[in-house]
Amino acid sequence: MYKLLILLCFSTLLQAQQVVRKDSIERDTELKEFRIVANPGQKDDNAVLATEIMTIKTLGKAACCNLSESFETNASVSVSYADAVTGSKQIQMLGLSGNYVQTNVENIPSIRGLKSTYGLNYLPGTWIKSIDLAKGTISVVNGYESMTGAINVELAKPDTSEVYYLNTYTNSQGRFEVNQQGAHRFNSRLSTGVFTHYSQQAARLDGNGDGFLDLPLFNLMNVLNRWKYATDRWMIQWGANYLFEDRLGGQKSFTSEADRSQIYGFGSKTDRFETFAKVARLYPQKPYQGLALILSTANHANDSYFSTKNYHGREQSMYGNLIFQSIIDNTNHTWKAGASFLLDSYQETYIDSTFARTEIVPGIYGEYTWTIPNALTVVLGQRVDFHNQLGTQWVPRLHLKWDVAPDWIVRLSAGKGWRRVNPLAENMGYLINNRALKLVGNLNPLEVSWNYGITLTKNMNIGSRKANLVIDAFQTDFTHQWMVDMESASSVRFYSSPGVSYSTSLQAEFNYSPFKRFEFKAAYRFQDVQADYLTESGALNRLSKPFLNRDRVLVNLAYATPYEIWKYDLTWQWNGTRRIPNATIGHLHTASSPDVLAPAFSTVNAQVTRQFKKWELYLGVENLFNFTQANPIMSAKDPFALGFDASMVWGPIVGTMVYTGIRFKIN
After folding, report:
1. The TonB-dependent receptor-like beta-barrel domain covers which part of the protein (predicted)?
2. Which end of the chain lies in a sparser environment, N or C, as judged by fewer CB atoms within 10 Å?
């Protein structure tokens, strides 16, 4: 019966497509004058998934010093501080945290495990060539962890990069950084690139006068060396990356670890070394066929302290993915199949508790794509992974793209995702406060969700200029979720979801270029994220997710003069109210006011860029109107008392920031 229903659905789609095509042919029988104009926005109309491509041009609209700052002009991703002490940043997509977003660097899993704590800060913006942002579940070829979306970062390639590239940045809050990139082609086949980054936060800022540093001091060094060898039949890339970071935060008078029993202090040192290799076998006579092998290793070490509480973490990881693709009869029927392998070994110590585990996850997958050119594309994928601790996990995924008409595109997606929780690394911000950490019941570290989405894209002309409207809706339903419960003022409780947990996200985005070299973007996003929380008595209480704004509006204006000698960018964001969890000890909640909502607020960022022959100068401002959250740290005057809490962050911590820098290139 279900096969008959599927055939009927596809038959209906094809009949509708034929009617649209016939009408289009009849209307376009006569030759008409046409003009080629730029298509605004960053949406990829050819992709099967709802994909947004952020190019160098897009990233250049803001300071974009690292990956966490790359989404200033993006409507789908929100970035915020995890707490008011460590400087750790987190992203949100479809109303859920970045833990549910699979973040890859050139299709290699990157920000996961222990790296998830500060990983968004580690990737320099100048290294980034482009960012592919997809909502919902993605191809099974890339793994099982994309539960609400995926981010794939493409770095600059040694064979196409500038011979030398220099970027410097400094701001009014005492941050400085310098990036250098060099590339050399030995011949038509072999090339190499060296990328270096150094950044420092040197100024001790306390703009709100609470006695704590608004931003932690840090020194970060990051070096990447990559190679590429390419022929008609082979493409091989390999390289290594080393990173070291030293952070220090807490009370403004805190200077060294020796003082932390009398003065509240935070410190973190991270060493990370990664290697990667990508080998592709090409078939010039069969361009539709290919074989690829992706390999990577990582060794991560972090030593931190939060006042008198110590944390030590070690991780060794290995990843491999073997992919083969070909066709069935013709290119309208393509398929991919392969096998993956993941090994994660963790050793963590927090205060007097030790946690160690080794995860081994081999997996196999297959994906079939049926294409009717310029009409319909259907992708059906299946994968099975064998986790040594969590058992066998099956992941089905379906994606459909229907070109209803030349100016109408409909995309549908449905699929399952799962992940293994890293309780400490993913919740490091909660170690800052003095709440007790409590584990409730029999904890299941497995998280499983189903995600369903629909995206409508309408391309249009307003006058003689291009515009597009994109409307999407996504639903994420959890069957297993790890709950982080802050509803008790004296503790943070961790337990497996006892009931319903879901996220609903709706977004509309309009892009328009009303005249040459001017781009306008306006977007509205609605999010409803709720879960059943466990009360002290054992009853269930359904609440909206804390610290999440239900409504968000973004407007971006960009204009460039001829030859882009001058470029102007302005971004305005409005964030709606959000619920604050219980904090009776800090006198935030009272018996007469059990629910507290953080106020709505706006931020404005602007940037001006002046381009010269080989270099450019940029000057910008963030948080132009100086909005900050009042008292982001509760009981800041008594940091060793039970009511001290630096994790109740819902808005900007620092005020207006002015920055400037230069970019210099030798092609």
Report:
1. 199-624
2. N
Question: pLDDT tens digit string along 38-49?
Answer: 455 678 888 999
Length of the chain: 667
Burial class (CB in 10 A: 0-12, 13-18, 19+), 209: exposed
Of residues 36 and 536, more confidence is placed in: 536
> Residues 31, 34, 36, 40: is their CA dihedral positive or negative?
negative
Strand residue runs (E) in 463-517: 465-480, 482-485, 491-496, 501-512
Which of 439, 542, 451 is CA-nearest to residue 496? 439
Cβ neighbours around 285 below 10 Å, total? 5
**Considering the entire predicted model, what is its pTM?**
0.91
- CA dist 642 to 187, 254, 435, 503, 635, Å? 65, 20, 7, 33, 9
Judge whether 399 and 370 are in contact, CB under 8 Å.
no
* Token couple for 417: 């995702």
State the amino acid at position 402 in one-letter form.
W
Q: Give the containing element (helix H, strand E) for 652.
A: none
Query: For the segment 507-563, what is each residue's pLDDT rounded down to a tens digit?
Result: 999 999 999 999 999 999 999 999 999 988 889 999 999 999 999 999 999 999 999
pLDDT tens digits, one per residue of 397-442: 999 999 999 999 999 999 999 999 999 999 998 899 888 889 888 8
